Phosphotyrosine protein phosphatase I domain-containing protein (Aeromicrobium flavum), 290 residues
Amino acid sequence: MADPIRVHLLAMVMAAPSGQMRIDLLQRAHGDGVTSHVDAMVEAGLLEADEYSVRPTHDALVRFGAWVAEPSGGQPEPAPRDHARSLDDISEELIDRYDGIVAAETVREFVQDSYDLLASRATVRRFLPQLTARFAADRLSALASLSGRDGRRRADILFVCVRNAGRSQIAAALARSIGGERVRVRTAGSMPAAHLDPAVRAELSALGIDHLTEFPRPLTREVIQASGTVVTMGCGDACPIVPGRRYVDWPVMDPVGCSRDEVRAIIEDIRRRVETLLEELGVITAPGLR
């Protein structure tokens, strides 16, 4: 991030009230060369991009939030009314996205509730609207899948641990990597941490597995309801029981504070469990039957 153009681009994206920025607006500011800068920041894990827009990852918010957003010596935290305006923008965008699937008032309630859940554990409030946009979108996607109107039929798995920073993230990343489009994976924590465990992120990246959730998410009921299989790891009775769901508990060691070799062993343990689960669900074929 020594390139001043990238610093400015990242600042623009992180300051966007909706939590994302259209690529054409970035191009107006810095020309067609924006694409190479965006690609570099995506590769570095600072941005996520689709065909038309980019958004900062949680890692970017944690690592560069204060530096990028407060270059002149510190700005005050946004007043609640500033966040309220951002939440209105987020709600309108999600209302358009889920038009005919989720009622507008329900969308607004989910956006506000998602904001409140994240705000209750936030140490830095500046980027709460951006995080809220992604969290609310995930929850609404789960709600839409309950109606059967999201257009896709796949195996649904929810991985839950206490902090949603290690074990459940490992399991989710492996399930996405192995199962691909044949499985829909969600992840949450009963008491989510502020960010992903850096040792876990580093080891998965070394294995070429980068299907991580951007930030630890609180456990919510509609996400459980939308999942056919719920896998818990160390969270005990914190996960509500929803009738008709399959619950599996994996006694897996928490990687927090573990050595690099221990983290690798935990990843391999979870990999074996994930492969067995995906075979049981018919997502992949057992090695002896291929």
